[in-house]
Amino acid sequence: MTLKQLRAFVLAARTGSFTSAAASMGIAQASISELIRKLEDEYATPLFTRGARRLVLTAAGEALLPHAEQATVAADDGAHALRSVRGLHGGVATFGVLRNAGYYLLSDLAQRFHDSHPDVRIRLIGRNSADVASAVAAGTIEAGLVVLPIDDADLEVTPLLRDEVRYATADPSRAAEPVSIEDFARSRLILYDAHYGWSDPTRRQLADRAQLAGLKLEPWIEVEHVEGALSLVQRGIGDTVLARAVAESSACPQNLHTIGFREPLHDTIALVRRRGATLSPATRELAGLARRMLLEHSGND
Amino acid sequence: MTLKQLRAFVLAARTGSFTSAAASMGIAQASISELIRKLEDEYATPLFTRGARRLVLTAAGEALLPHAEQATVAADDGAHALRSVRGLHGGVATFGVLRNAGYYLLSDLAQRFHDSHPDVRIRLIGRNSADVASAVAAGTIEAGLVVLPIDDADLEVTPLLRDEVRYATADPSRAAEPVSIEDFARSRLILYDAHYGWSDPTRRQLADRAQLAGLKLEPWIEVEHVEGALSLVQRGIGDTVLARAVAESSACPQNLHTIGFREPLHDTIALVRRRGATLSPATRELAGLARRMLLEHSGND
DNA sequence: CAACGTCATAGGGAAACCCTATGAAAGGAG
DNA sequence: CTCCTTTCATAGGGTTTCCCTATGACGTTG
């Protein structure tokens, strides 16, 4: 039994023909025929019932298929792991981080990682959570931090930290008591993450609540960065929302008032990776460091 | 990347030397060296740091190892599955069953299976649960039924049915109220499963409770079969324990009195199989039938 | 009935896997 | 420090696997 034989078998079973399997593997149809016949001869049992334009797995073929698939996938993952590691030296490990990562003690993630791994180049991609999630799902990057909820199909999600989302206003009367979704919908909203809009997880949570209340959120102003939104709020043009970590940082103007929602709203920061994927050593190390730093931040509060 | 290369790599990593790996694979040491060098050449990365009498995995080797192990194990399981299927016709499917299987409507398991699979020979091995568990773990049999708790290292356990364990006595005054472990320890115990003794799961549960109470269980008489124990109890020589299914069967003499424990005690009947192993079609079918029959029994109560 | 699509086989070449023999290098023992 | 032992690497040769093109057999489709 060889890997080539298993690959040929799996592809023939999946595509329904030796000819298609050959095309998939980039080899001649005769090679597929030979590979599978050799496997059948070795175990003295047919794997397919052949018919003109018809290929049906036998019971033996059915029994072998999951194992063959697992073996070939594992070998492919192994090859990928080797290529990833090879890329490590002189290469780049990419990791998706939150746009507001700085507010969670993550601004020196790059430095701390570099200090302990001077031979590894790293590239932290600051993106919106939905974008990080889809990039990880697509395999473009190996892992990253996101705010939940995100579409987690094919992703393994590890929640790390919860942070309250608060209402921010320059008008103290509007921060006198916890804000209902109705009040929120009626306010003059200034929202950030203009590019991602309503795919942003924090926005999604707000939009979902509004919808349940039969309302629709329509921001008056949309900007890209939270700092820009805060600047506008400070001038009394409108109100926004922000994470407690941002509220408690120096980025938040002193004269702004914040208040929680009547029904508390939280961002849950989570680590995502593709389900079943093995992280390369560098990314595993980086993810571990990011996690520790987040939990450090949580411990200090 | 080929299966032979992955096998050589895994064995070298596991044994710590090319020479040992060669012995394990039954090939020359030079072949191992060549296999691994070819793999390293293909990915342009060393997998081992070689030293005289020392072999250390590189970071790349560490990265590859789990995938290589998975690939080789999957291929072996595939080969096993093929051999199992080939052995099915005119072969024997073995399955471990409880010693007291008859009390759970399993006595006609063989017949029912044969009726639906006349071309498959089956061999049901009646053994103690601990024995079934270790035989499955060792791969001697593919699956079986056991009573919990058992040592489940490397086993996948699926609980199916719970049955109360009751105290049985000929003396009605001793069955007047639920029995404490202290009372139990003080009674004249007649226990079955003499051969397996305290590795029997039911006994283990009792022994654990006694130990927690600072007591030790010392049976006055030990026999092999529950029927033998019941016969002695009927004569007033001592008391025993038995599953409710046995108590409610015709095997239990009419004049015996049974009562539950003050702290209810149960046998949990479970299906065990080796973790990660794929059952051959015949064994899967047999296990499924056994499970349905057990649940039928449970439904009737 | 002819054309088409698919699988099986033949024969040949390249690569992988196997061997024995032997040398290089490092560790251990005395 | 020297000698011996153990382990890995390489060479050269033989066998098996994997690849190819060419071509025939068989069943389906129109």
Defining key terms:
homodimer, 301 residues, alpha/beta, Arc Repressor Mutant, subunit A, D-Maltodextrin-Binding Protein, domain 2, 3 domains, four-stranded antiparallel sheet, two-stranded antiparallel ribbon, 10 strands, elongated, DNA-binding
Structural Rg of chain A: 26 Å
Oligomer: homodimer
Q: What is the N-to-C order of secondary-structure elements of chain A (H for helix, E for strand)?
A: HHHEEHEHEHEEHEHEHEHEH
Distance between the termini of chain A: 58 Å
InterPro entries (chains A, B): HTH-type_LysR_regulators, LysR_HTH_N, LysR_subst-bd, WH-like_DNA-bd_sf, WH_DNA-bd_sf
GO cellular component, one term (chains A, B): cytosol
Protein name (chains A, B): DNA-binding transcriptional LysR family regulator
Domain HTH lysR-type (chains A, B): 1-58
General description of the model:
Two copies of one chain form a homodimer. Chain A is elongated, with a radius of gyration of 26 Å. In chain A, 45% of the residues lie in helices and 23% in strands. A four-stranded antiparallel beta sheet of chain A has the order 5-10-6-9. A two-stranded antiparallel sheet of chain A has the order 1-2. In chain A, strand 7, helix 8 and strand 8 (221-222) form a beta-alpha-beta unit. Chain A is built from eleven helices and ten strands. The first copy, chain A, has three domains: 3-84, Arc Repressor Mutant, subunit A (Orthogonal Bundle); 92-157 and 270-300, D-Maltodextrin-Binding Protein, domain 2 (3-Layer(aba) Sandwich), CATH 3.40.190; 161-268, D-Maltodextrin-Binding Protein, domain 2. The first copy, chain A, is an alpha/beta fold and 301 residues long. Chain A binds chain B through residues 1-4, 6, 43-45, 59-60, 62-64, 66-68, 70-72, 74-75, 77-79, 81-86, 88, 278, 280-281, and chain B through 1-4, 6, 43-45, 59-60, 62-64, 66-68, 70-72, 74-75, 77-79, 81-86, 88, 278, 280-281.
